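QA checklist item 7 of 12: single-chain prediction sanity check.
[x] sequence parsed
[x] length recorded as 218
[x] structure emitted
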Amino acid sequence: MTGRRVVVLDHGSGNVRSAVRALERVGARVELTADRATAENCDGLVVPGVGAFSAVASGLRAVRGDQIIDRRLAGGRPVLGICVGLQVMFERSTEPSTEHGDVPGLGEWPGIVERLPAQVVPHMGWNSVSPADGTVLFAGVEQERFYFVHSYGVQRWEFVVRDGGMAHFTPPAVTWAEHGVPFVAAVENGPLSATQFHPEKSGDAGAQLLRNWVTTLA
């Protein structure tokens, strides 16, 4: 595990230094960059996201992050999205944006990001999760709590196997949490994984989750 090369994609999404430090603490060699060749060829790519869905989606496209992610996934190379970095992997969001307009997501997964119908929004603080069977990310931290900061989430999982299905297809592992309603807390889908919570702000549990992901890097 030690020494795996990880790029945190620098697309202008707020303070990402905490993610860099957290990954370094679990043994990765980390670079914060938007350089395409570096991002495409590292062992693992982390896509952070803080703020509005449309701003993150626009920022990613501005540095060709959508192309970088597509190219990595086509080659089976790991990508980890964090917070809005999970949300933009879906098709679109209902979050309004006057600055960027109606910006679509990357469409790696079908589904819509919607405002949480809870009494208190944003959902801010520690919450438990219900890990999926066969999870790799949550190994050893299945009963732990993680730190969330968000007002929108994916409340319905709409993944469909097309073309009649595949005999050896492994369905995505979807982990759920609840705030007013159930929402997607994490997805593990081959080389593409993502968390709605911030593992870099989730103490020892978040560190173990990042360690689990770094351990999978080839």
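[x] summary fact logged: The chain has one domain: 5-216.
[ ] second reviewer sign-off
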